[in-house]
């Protein structure tokens, strides 16, 4: 998710059924979306997370 400014990105998450996004304190700010997405992909694989669908339902 983009932060303040043009080139500030950080992984964030939203729990199913909740409306607020939370920044992941363990993740660094990155200069591009792709770098931040890569960080999130690595963390998700380690933790066994699944991507949420459009309605907040877990896919898979």
What does this structure look like?
This protein has a domain at 1-15 and 22-45. A two-stranded antiparallel sheet has the order 1-2. The chain has one helix at residues 33-47; strands spanning 12-13, 22-23. It is α+β, with helices and mostly antiparallel strands and 60 residues long. The model has no long low-confidence stretch (mean pLDDT 79). The longest helix is centred in the middle third of the chain and has 15 residues, at 33-47. The two termini are 23 Å apart. It is built from one helix and two strands, in the order E-E-H.
Report low-confidence residues grouped into runs of 5 or more.
none
Major beta sheet, strand line-up: 1-2
- Specify the biggest β-sheet: 2 strands, antiparallel
Share of residues in strands? 5-15%
Mean pLDDT: 79
| Discrete helix count | 1
Secondary structural class = alpha+beta
């Amino acid at each position: 998710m983009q932060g303040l400014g043009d080139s500030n990105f950080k992984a964030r998450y939203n729990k199913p059924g909740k409306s607020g996004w939370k920044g992941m304190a363990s993740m660094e700010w990155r200069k591009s979306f792709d770098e931040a997405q890569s960080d999130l992909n690595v963390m998700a694989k380690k933790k066994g997370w699944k991507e949420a669908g459009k309605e907040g339902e877990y896919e898979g």
